[in-house]
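Exam revision sheet. Question 4 asks you to relate a sequence to its structure. Input first:
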Amino acid sequence: MSNQLPPAPGTPSHKNNPPGGSSPRRRWLTWTILAIVALVMGYAIFVRPFLKPAGANRRGQFTGAFPVSAEPARQADVNVRLVALGTVTPVYTVTVRSRVDGELQKLFFTEGSNVEAGAPLAEIDPRPFEVQKLQNEAQLAKDQALLDNAKLDLARFQTLLDQDSVAKQQVDTQAALVQQYQAAIKLDEAQVASAALQLAYAHITSPITGRIGLRAVDQGNMIHASDANGIAVITQLHPITVIFAIPQDAVPKVMKRFKSGEAMAVDAYDRDGKTLLATGKLVTVDNQIDPTTGTVKLRAEFENTDETLFPNQFVNVQLITEVLAGATVVPNAAVQRGTVGTFVYVVTEQKTAAVRVVVTGPSEKGEIVINQGLKPGETVVVDGVDKLREGSALEIVARTTGATPGAKPAKPAGPWPHDGARPTTN
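Answer key, structure tokens:
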């Protein structure tokens, strides 16, 4: 018989509660509540902001339609361009050097000025060459007098020979002496001409028309014909050429049009590729491919009357290889890229967005060619495509440079193929 008394009324029972801890049921309930709270917070932070209804603006207020700007596809003639890096190269570059040794007495040019062919540039001390010329002329005069006297003696000896008064040997000797003096005269004349030429070389003139650079030697210095730097450098600035290289795979297309005799336009841009410096034409193609680079060199000629191109300047060259007549074009900003490939949003009659997969071609002046998937006249969304989906309601607004709600400003279009296309946003 047990001696334990039943618990008093109102006293809690500890039969099912292990000493020193809470019940498993209560712990399970606590963790369940914490998990639910964590899920709700995660939904509110990471999921809900991206589930705004179509047409909601930045403040989350539903407007019913996305404000976008749109333009119709149109037909235009598009130039297919080949882009390369070129170097401005003068047609003629001349280093002015002295052909004789002497003191540089005078300089007749101004650094950086334009000079004409034949214009005087410098003068070397001419006195040594003048003295040499006088000596040679004096020797010529002496030998000429001896020749005249020898001819008179020969004439006398021939008269005496006819009279049988002298031996024929003496006549022959006198004739040989005349020939000797005649040869001496030719030598003297050559020496006089050489001295005159040296004297002419003392007066240096411009061999071409162009711009002369900085002088490499100052007046008063002794200069020599063997000096490497010369006196100055003259370059022809107009016309001027640009040498650039194209891949060997593009050579057949270029040669086909070049051989047809049709002028191929070449545009030269600055290093950033944004400013057009000059427009010229292709004049020649090299006769071999460089095996180390797999490219062939081409030369384009530019009038350069405003002298915007400068020798050894690096420029971006665009060679127009083909003209696509009547191509379908849209702004670069209208073309998007995603999992379906390249596509545009077409505005339907119900003012909704329809995804249209397209095949693009070359780009020029901020517009891109659509080879397949779009017809001229169909309207495409240009700005405000960030959160569009198939069937999104649209509100067409005027295209401005400012930011449209829900849209990013389009990147300025450049002259390069496919430049100006907006980045893909899915």
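Marking note for examiners. Residues 82-92+235-323 form a domain with the Elongation Factor Tu (Ef-tu); domain 3 fold (CATH 2.40.30.170).
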